Amino acid sequence: MVSISPIHSKAGLLIDEDTKKRRYMVISDLHIGFESHIYTRGITFEEMIFFDEMIRELSDLIKSNKVQALILLGDLKSTVGSISRQEWQKIPRFFKLLSEITDIYFVPGNHDSNIRFLMPENINVMSTKGMVLDDTLLVHGHTMPTTARSYIKKIVMGHIHPVFLRHNSVINGQRVWIYLKIVKGAIFPGSQGTLDLIILPAYNRYLYAINERRYTKSISPIIDKAIKSNAVQQALVVSLDGSIVGGIETLLKII
Q1: Beta pairing class for 131-133 and 124-125
Q2: Which residue, 27, 72, 163, 201, is the most exposed by fewest CB within 10 angstroms?
Q3: Could you tell me how many helices (H) and strands (E) the chain has, helices first?
Q4: 46-to-89, 139, 188 alpha-carbon distances in Å
């Protein structure tokens, strides 16, 4: 068994693996190098200040929570199919600085093509199908899990960058968590019972702000299958500070 808890006011999870007495921190969707996109739109950005703040915050969280390993659930880089100047400069440094204080497991996402050229040998690179801790599957979320994983009871994923959108709300545009209980057979045909699904907010807090006018929702086949199969039994949308902001109706507006 594993126990899972969000880090208060942060877009990260702590997972405690009872059998190995090992603690992991899980984050997703850093999109390092996203600056190259906003520069083309004439927007200036203090990229090194943001990057250094992110490294410092992650280092503090790893140390203060006594984390033995960091799990990155994909989209560490921002460009698709290429490597930008910002990614060449920052991603090797990201891995070097954080691997000095903790083990790193990396589950590739749909933006992480060619990231192998930026990665040192001491990083544990997993399949795009994810990694399993006891009864929990950790994936980016852009692919369906294999039927070989039908024994799992929980899925933790990123990819869709959930944001609360309601223009008359004080939390409009803020990142949120999504917690779902779904019929397991919708994801693993022939399986019985239910499956818990936890969707992480993007760790990069600027993704929505810089794309507000062109904001589009990322599509996950896992979520798409659950919705189209009418398999969602329960839903909670929760702010980073732990406030419940909605249920199934809010979920449908977000995804």
Answers
A1: unpaired
A2: 163
A3: 6, 13
A4: 15, 31, 45
Cα dihedral 198, 145, 115, 85 in deg (nearest 10)? -50
Tell me the residue type at 44.
T
Model's pTM, two decimal places? 0.92
Q: Work out the number of other CB atoms within 10 angstroms of the CB of residue 9.
A: 10
- Answer yes or no: are the C-beta atoms of 198 and 155 closer than 8 Å: yes
Dihedral, 140, 141, 146, 152 alpha carbons, nearest 10: 80
User: What is the distance between the alpha carbons of residues 76 and 162, in angstroms, rounded to a whole number?
Assistant: 17
**What is the token pair recorded at 178?**
């999504």
